[in-house]
Design brief:
By secondary structure, the chain is mainly α. The chain has three domains: 266 residues, Growth Hormone, Chain: A; 141 residues, no CATH class; 27 residues. The protein has 23 helices and no strands.
């Protein structure tokens, strides 16, 4: 009897362990870790100067690399189509392979381990490495949204928030491992996200959705963890600027950041235990029969006829239904969504907003260098010449970046407007606007105007481009015209988004999650029955 009881308890423990590592909450924890390692593109401004100095690039060439970086990070149609035809574990394997290959080749080039690559090769390397971020988005973010459809808004915000923190997280980890060496940061970006993707390759997958009373509470706890992590990193960053850190201090900082990063694991175990206990209570009164429950013959026939009719309608409609889309929130086909006015507004708004934001972020290093000691004089000149209060100048500067910030904080409403059936592909189609906006604004406008001002300064000194290795512009005029153009573009983008708001306000005024409730109820019954069958097997 003791042996039987011991074997039964061991079996129960194994079942609980399997439930934890295969459950929705552990899947969410793993997804957040992957997303926290998927923001390497935001660190381009940190190591771009190494690329510029080592390889002798001018600003236009560096901005061209930056555009290919944004192109890779946002052109995810291939990852979306791949995710709909292959399992998630395969998508994550592609993430690991592309991430390591792209950034490792850049590191080899910057450290002169290999012969200096051509510009198109460097653009290809960073495009491949950055595109892995898109596969990570598709593999983890899209899967999380499908597994938590009633909390998709909070889920998207949290996932994007962890991506935003990833740059700062990488910085602390590379300080702990490599010290203050920005070239080694490129190596860390290559191997660390690839390792995380491989560790959790089988844990992230689409599951049957179910109700959980603590779902909102857990997401709030994740928000709290993200906030604590952000505050810790901010404090560490300030301290590291003010006080010299030893390698042991950097190591302690990295461990503290990693501990907070992995703390959601304990939340996953707690919630899976709650689900386990609740399911045991629900299945206790269920009486099982020897035969598995089957649908009545008429109901089964009806289901088969419905599926057959649905398949025939989908194949017969073809292109004729492209301009006859369903209601907002229902499952659009890919072409129906792409040819809709709502998608056009989403695309145009993100082209302006995120295009400006990416352009500003990619030029931060050069902006600081160009302004130098002149930065404090800009508001002073405006104040003295036009009598405009300094706080008003500050508010206008904040307004400039507001559109891009809001688009990052409230990501594309693709799943809400066009359904979840083709969400992986449509989500990535919407992101195409970002690299396109970055190319037009960053390379064709900001980069060209910067180089034009830099060449003027060389000519004033009686020098030519061939006489200097690095083309650098100094002074407030370097970015004056280009960022005035960005301000106008941001304003236009905000108007476009307001048009989308007016078109969709009635839809958002209703219950956009109603369609998922029946599915959740059916899944709960099925899981309760399955759990009862398993318990009967253990008892017998």
């Amino acid at each position: 009897m003791a042996t039987t009881a011991s074997g039964s308890s061991g079996y129960v423990c194994c079942r609980f362990f399997l439930q934890v590592i295969t459950g929705r909450w552990f899947m969410m924890f793993a997804s957040f870790l992957i997303m926290a390692c998927a923001g390497a593109t935001y660190l381009f401004g940190v190591y771009s100067k190494d690329i510029k100095l080592t390889l002798g690039y001018d600003q236009s060439t560096l901005n061209l690399m930056s555009t290919f970086k944004d192109l890779g990070a946002n052109v995810g149609v291939l990852s979306g189509l791949l995710a709909e035809e292959t399992p998630t574990w395969f998508v994550l394997l592609v993430v690991a392979l592309m991430n390591f290959t792209g950034y490792f080749m850049i590191w080899l080039a910057v450290t002169k381990t290999i012969a200096t690559p051509k510009v198109w090769q460097m653009c290809a390397y960073i495009c491949i490495g950055a595109n892995s971020q898109n596969f990570a988005n598709t593999g983890s973010l899209v899967t999380c949204v499908k597994n938590f459809p009633q909390s998709r808004g909070m889920m998207l915000g949290l996932m994007k928030g962890f991506v935003g923190l990833s740059g700062a997280i990488f910085t602390q980890i590379y300080y702990a491992i490599y010290g203050n060496d920005s070239k080694s940061l490129i190596l860390l970006i290559g191997w660390f996200p690839a390792a995380i993707s491989l560790v959790f390759v089988y844990n992230i997958r689409a599951m049957k959705i179910s109700a959980h009373p603590n779902e909102t509470k857990v997401l709030h706890e994740y928000l709290g963890i993200a906030t604590v992590l952000a505050l810790l990193i901010m404090a560490l960053t300030i301290a590291q600027k003010k006080v010299p850190f030893s390698h042991a201090a950097y190591l302690f900082s990295g461990v503290a950041v990693c501990f907070i990063m992995f703390s959601p694991f304990f939340i996953a175990v707690r919630e899976e235990f709650y689900t386990w206990r609740n399911r045991e209570q629900l299945t206790a009164p269920i009486r099982l029969v020897d035969e598995a429950p089957t649908l009545p013959e008429t109901e089964m026939k009806s289901e088969i006829e419905y599926e057959s009719m649905e398949t025939k309608e989908a194949s017969a409609s073809g292109c004729s239904s492209i301009f006859k889309p369903p209601k907002r929130g229902e499952d659009f086909s890919i072409l129906q969504a792409l040819f809709s006015i709502d998608m056009f507004l989403v695309f145009l708004g993100t082209f302006c907003g995120l295009g400006c934001t990416l352009t500003a972020a990619d030029n931060l290093g050069q902006i600081g260098e160009s302004l130098g000691v002149f930065a404090g004089f800009v508001s002073e000149i405006i104040l003295l010449k036009y009598k405009i209060p300094r706080p008003l100048i500050m508010s206008l500067v904040f307004l400039l970046a507001s559109v891009g910030d809001l688009l990052i904080a409230f990501p594309w409403p693709v799943s809400e407007l066009f359904g979840l059936k083709y969400y992986a592909t449509l989500f990535n189609c919407a992101q195409l606007s970002s690299p396109l906006g970055s190319f037009v604004l960053n390379v064709r406008i900001v980069g060209k105007l910067y180089d034009k001002e830099a060449l003027k300064q060389l000519a004033a000194k009686g020098m030519t481009r061939s006489m200097v290795k690095e083309l650098t512009c100094i002074g407030k005029q370097c970015y004056r015209l280009s960022f005035s153009i960005l301000a106008a573009t941001n304003t236009f983008g905000s108007i476009v988004i307001l048009v989308l708001v007016l078109r969709t306000h009635k839809y958002y005024g209703g219950d956009i999650y109603e369609r998922f409730r029946d599915e959740i109820a059916e899944n709960e019954k099925e899981m309760a029955l399955k759990s009862a069958q398993e318990m009967q097997m253990v008892e017998s």
